[in-house]
Design brief:
homodimer, alpha/beta, Carbamate kinase, eight-stranded mixed β-sheet, six-stranded antiparallel β-sheet, 14 helices, 36% helix
Chain lengths: 406, 406
Amino acid sequence: MALVVQKFGGTSVANIEKIKNVAKKVIREREKGNDVVVVLSAMAGETDRLINLANAAADSPDGREYDSLISTGEQVTVTLLAIVLISMGFKAKSFLGFQVKINTDQAYKKARIKGIDPQAIQEELKKGTIVVVAGFQGVDEENNITTLGRGGSDTSAVALAAALKADQCDIYTDVDGVYTTDPNVCDRARRLEKISYDEMLEMAMTGAKVLQPRSVEMAKKYDVPVYVKSTFTDEGGTLVTKEDKDMEKEIVSGITYDRDQAKITVVHVPDKPGIAAALFSPLSDKNINVDMIIQNASLEGFTDLTFTVSKKDLKEAQKIVENTARQIGAKKVEVDDEVAKVSIIGVGMASHSGVAAKMFSTLANEGVNIMMISTSEIKISCVIQRKYTELAVSVLHDAFGLEKKK
Amino acid sequence: MALVVQKFGGTSVANIEKIKNVAKKVIREREKGNDVVVVLSAMAGETDRLINLANAAADSPDGREYDSLISTGEQVTVTLLAIVLISMGFKAKSFLGFQVKINTDQAYKKARIKGIDPQAIQEELKKGTIVVVAGFQGVDEENNITTLGRGGSDTSAVALAAALKADQCDIYTDVDGVYTTDPNVCDRARRLEKISYDEMLEMAMTGAKVLQPRSVEMAKKYDVPVYVKSTFTDEGGTLVTKEDKDMEKEIVSGITYDRDQAKITVVHVPDKPGIAAALFSPLSDKNINVDMIIQNASLEGFTDLTFTVSKKDLKEAQKIVENTARQIGAKKVEVDDEVAKVSIIGVGMASHSGVAAKMFSTLANEGVNIMMISTSEIKISCVIQRKYTELAVSVLHDAFGLEKKK
């Protein structure tokens, strides 16, 4: 007998009919003789509805109250699923964050899980109960309700799997697994049978939306095998797991893209200590995330500094940077909001040379100019003009032979 | 400086605009220098929406899950009001049942408050915080969420006022007080300045919908002065309080009616011990409430037994009673679902003779037949044909001179 954690996202529980469908999947797992813990998101659209209410109530709603408000979405789905399961003759019980307890820090809207008390759930599992836990929510030390940020239910599921020492964590979603790239952009995209935690993490951080990056970090840390599966079909699935020998044979496992990028260049900056801090601290103070940062080699005591931000932050970032640029004696600030980032990811990259060169020449052959480059051991990202995004993904997919398993 | 508990019902918090209006009322009280604890219901219609979801999920939804589901309605309104108050520059904090804690028994859907821990709220009040508490909900010993039944937010408010030793409990609603009778039925209905707990309780139990009976019992028990006020105007209001000399001068304070009545008569029952128990235990087992019960004088060892139930319970009650009637050897069972109950209430009744006679003759003069009578020290109820309800209320209102204060 195994212990399985199953997580279902918002589109899987969007209405009563779909919740009944989820109940069937849960029961099928239970009837294999497994203990089952289910983690749910809110009904698709419900969290947005609640956020709209909060924003109608105030321009910048208080964090504590905001979290307590939007956590109701998951409270609705878990109780409804428990009602359905009980009416079908099964023992079932919903748990909210405070009932488990799922302890978090007090960073409202993006709290981090500090620990989960497994005892209450374990006792119910011993009685044969199907346990249904509200994703996305926890409580801080003072019993204030907190939420984990967008996609936080993935993290709830993996954290519960870790705390309960589950044998497996199944993430049910509206796609049937992790693909070599977005099938909507490249019709040769192929579902991966397996992917390593590190690759999945890079993919999630560079644009793949299938899993929240933090949930992957946590899965890696606690060595939780995660299956990404479809709620709507029984086929397919991708196992996110530890790196193994097979994986290293693949040079590139996946290609991601992120269209939500804008580029800011500070031109002719005096190259001296403290300049980077002077530029980036005011952005960080305003919660503006800077993604890639490139500093050119210094020429006669001056350099150019280029970085990317999220498109939605561009206007505010530009104002802040122009202000700083004057103070530090830079020549001017240039912005470009027509860019995108394309990345190739693969654990095999570290042991194969020529991967970067192949990426660059493939793009060059299509006339795609590379504006910025950043690399990690298992990833290369290029910033290009946004209009070339689909083309770049498509030609890279072919160049690295992702269509067919070699 | 006083401590005031303010309770606002569902129509008062039906949308963001109305919640902002409630915020103004709260702030006005706060700016008098008073400590304020606000208790809210769910947005009008929201509890019904959640109940419909539960009923779509299963024919008879599990009680624990049902309560946890429908308690989300109040969680939404209290957090939204706190967001509004904070955005207006006030300290405010929402509390859910488990955060207060409001301890109840485990009778889901109709839990009773066992005790309220005042400490957390008192600490916030000391800091100058406006405390906003979710009505209608509590938690049992095992931290399961419970709800108090329809209108339970009134009880939450009075119980909090008692636990916090508040100086006053204001129940804001869509009418501006307690009337001598329903103004929709009798246009001479007059708002009462004051009414005693006992009278209010009888009125609530015989058909007046302005307060939940249990909240009145609790107000009486803990001697909490309750003001019934309108959310939408500043005028009027009725104080529900201890009986005083003035009140006894009024023979009748109010007239109520209840159209949701059906009458069942068991004809020619052998008059021997155990018959009543045999008839009523099976009804109670099915949670069918029996209201008035009349047993005629025994004639030659046989009697007739008549009682009333809620109209919605009539079909089920009839089946059960017909079954019992056969077993105990009664002749037959007759039902009448075209009846109503009209009641007159007043603490002065006990010290004035002739009140009942006046009621009966007033109805007789209009040709209204009285089918059943039941009395308490401060109340007389008559069951009549439903079609005469408005007429009966109207003529009794005139007969007892309720239009003008004497």
